[in-house]
Amino acid sequence: MFWKPFEPESQLVSSERIVIGNIPCLRYRPKDSSGLLPTVIYYHGWHSSKEYQRFKGTVLAVYGYQVIIPDAIYHGERNPIDYDKPDAFEKYFWDVIIQNTEESQSLIENIIDKYEADSSRIAVMGNSMGGFSASGVFVKNSNIKCMVNTNGSCAWVKAEEIFRETDNLPPISEERIRKLSTYDPMYNTGKLKIRPILMLHGDSDSSIPIDGQREFFKEISPLYSESPEKLVLVEVPRMDHYISTGMLEEAIEWLKKYL
Fold it and tell me: Are 51 and 25 in contact (CB under 8 A)?
């Protein structure tokens, strides 16, 4: 039977569909809450949508957070493509990530102005492609307090090199490097400003190999030498491209500590 996303019922969490600018989103918050709330912006992965993140939105909201889950372009309500076409990933993957990044500033401004987000307590989180997006959004918006990246990458150029090597494609072009390096955290270390970064990744991930996160962690660690606890890479043994309950628990602990 084909699995369909569902809306978990909760006596503790309220949910609604909203549109921010032209971006359809799901909004979760503790039921009967009032006033400004710490807010998590959650980005979904490739071939997914906001609806498939409902459970995560509900869980995070139970812990006291407002959660905003936007649809990425070419996903959900935003003109989804045929993901099974052989060239779909290569053609659209980075365009989606860059679009998420570039539209994030307006998204955040609207969340603060219209949806009761505490401007001093905003976090970004994402899985897989959403993890790439989260890292770009983190670089672009210095007012984001912390980030959680699951099964994604904070090293965009390195990840593209890995993708091309795996798929036996030509080496990455200088033009592509210039495009990705605009928001690639590895090329924008000064914009990290020692803000807390948690990376959770399976060490056997066959879709987004962990090598990129390892390289990022090694390269960036000296910048966090005075606060090493704010830069953490958790490698989950024998885990492929999935999110475990333990990973979600660690993400919540990170938010409780830094958001």
Answer: no
